[in-house]
């Protein structure tokens, strides 16, 4: 045996030695970590995997299912395992989540997540912290004022009607087939309707909306496609894939320098979107300086798009030089809003159409309400007078939050308060959890939104009428809008939530007045998987990627 080892290649000997050392390290590390863990009394499931912890189990099931099973068994605050035996807290406790939202500087994105987002988007609002976040937010806030959003609604309708025209073309073409999705089964070939991947069409629409309303820039995704957007979407798809290299890259920052496919796509996406940002910034600045020269103040009209309003706020005379954003920071905001203004909103619209296809009576009732407005392009104020539209969107965002959970790292020792005590491993009741600097915690937005104590016994069912019930919601939940956590809360809440709600209303208004959305006769199983954003997948067609196939039927007047 020793002679055989002597003849083995040197790399093989190194591999054997490394494996032995790593195994010995893990055998020592597991019990040591357990002994020194300051919240070891917290209940939780046994680790699913010696090396990868509970991560594979969570990812292999529909979004939220594993975490909900933990909460059902142990209570709304548990401990679980990360990679290499690292511990973390997982909670859907409303008091704990409110505490985290109110103390954003104490709970920040983990380094691995920050590195990934920075590579894709640069140092934009989504992934900066502390004073840098406050400085960026101060400049960006005026662009998202309700009055500013109201002025952007016409752009939303422009793109919503382009989407209508594209869907009409698809439905009129007897040979229509999207090569990016699975071919229609025989039973899905239906007279007067077409199988359409609505997820794809809605992503193209929301990209175009954020381009036009956000930066006065025409991406043209609905008409001809756009190579920058294609690169960005390819990067998102690659980052959302669960790969061994991706897992290792989270653990080993040095792997960031390797020119892997995911790294190259992320770099290309950042360069492309920030390049659009620089181009738009230069053009807008020239226009503003030509119109107003040195006479720029809060009352000066500069344009109605997000970028014009951001530049105006950034150039205001009452803003201290140290608080201004440089052109690189401004360009990174463009990259950030391309992601935040397209992927999440298209996802919300996709799941809303799915819920309406599953509930045709709700769809018809909503259509009848929309038809009460005489205008083909109602104002935001008119859209806001439609109570059932509000309820449907509220219910869809409650059931299907685009970002169903959030991971945070603690920056200083804290005591995490709980609304609902949990029974410790020693039988005592725990009403607060000690956390030390560097600890990780996942907050389950979806589980709060599905909490039966807040939303009633039918909390897992789509029912827009629940908001008209007395006593619903039964108690306060943390969050910026509607007593749900879908837009986060505190000073890290979604800055563009009003923009998203207006866009969803405008697009639904156009689509539901011109089309009926139905489930496929072949009844494929649609499931949700969380890869940063909660994406729809068809069981058995995972090779195609994320999709939401629906039957789209034009409404004949």
UniProtKB/TrEMBL annotation:
Its cofactor is heme. Pathway: Secondary metabolite biosynthesis. Heme binds at residue 494. InterPro entries: Cyt_P450, Cyt_P450_CS, Cyt_P450_E_grp-I, Cyt_P450_sf, Cytochrome_P450_monoxygenase. GO terms for molecular function: heme binding; iron ion binding; monooxygenase activity; oxidoreductase activity, acting on paired donors, with incorporation or reduction of molecular oxygen. It comes from the Eukaryota. Keywords: Heme, Iron, Membrane, Metal-binding, Monooxygenase, Oxidoreductase, Transmembrane, Transmembrane helix. Belongs to the cytochrome P450 family. This is Putative cytochrome P450. It comes from Cutaneotrichosporon oleaginosum.
